[in-house]
């Protein structure tokens, strides 16, 4: 399995939806809560090409984007190949 990182906040429904999809796929991920961590949120924004909303999801070095992006990728059949890589 590839390394998956998801940047979240505690009460974000989109974060919960993205994590639920990843769990459904059997994918393990590292979660970084940026709720009260401005330096980590800044690192997330730099890594996500300026995007500051959560979640921001990375599969290995691929920036997937947010929850809507993750779900779209899954509907289009692109998520499973990324999860199988490595």
Topology:
Blueprint lengths: L3 E5 L4 H12 L5 E4 L4 H10 L8 E4 L2 E4 L1 H9 L3 H6 L2
Helix pairs in contact: 1-3
Overview of this structure, please?
The protein has 86 residues and is of the alpha+beta class. The protein has a single domain, classed as 3-Layer(aba) Sandwich (Glutaredoxin). The chain is built from 4 helices and 4 strands, in the order βαβαββαα. The protein has helices at residues 13-24, 38-47, 67-75, 79-84, and strands at residues 4-8, 30-33, 56-59, 62-65. It has a 4-stranded mixed β-sheet, with helices on both faces. A hairpin with a 2-residue loop joins β3 (56-59) and β4. The protein is globular. The model has no long low-confidence stretch (mean pLDDT 96).
Given as residue ranges, the uncertain stretches (5+ residues, pLDDT < 50) are none
Mean pLDDT: 96
- Principal-axes shape call: globular
Question: In total, how many beta strands?
Answer: 4
What helical percentage do the residues reach? 40-55%
CATH architecture term: 3-Layer(aba) Sandwich
Question: What is shown here, in short?
Answer:
This protein has helices at residues 13-24, 38-47, 67-75, 79-84; strands at residues 4-8, 30-33, 56-59, 62-65. It is of the alpha+beta class. It is globular, with a radius of gyration of 12 Å.
């Amino acid at each position: 399995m590839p390394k998956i990182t998801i940047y979240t906040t505690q009460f974000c429904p989109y974060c919960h939806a993205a994590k639920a999809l990843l769990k459904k796929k059997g994918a393990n991920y590292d979660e970084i809560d940026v709720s009260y961590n401005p330096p980590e949120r800044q690192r997330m924004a730099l890594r996500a090409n300026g995007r500051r909303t959560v979640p921001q999801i990375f599969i290995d070095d691929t920036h997937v984007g947010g929850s809507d992006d993750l779900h779209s990728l899954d509907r289009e059949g692109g998520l499973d190949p990324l999860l199988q890589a490595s």
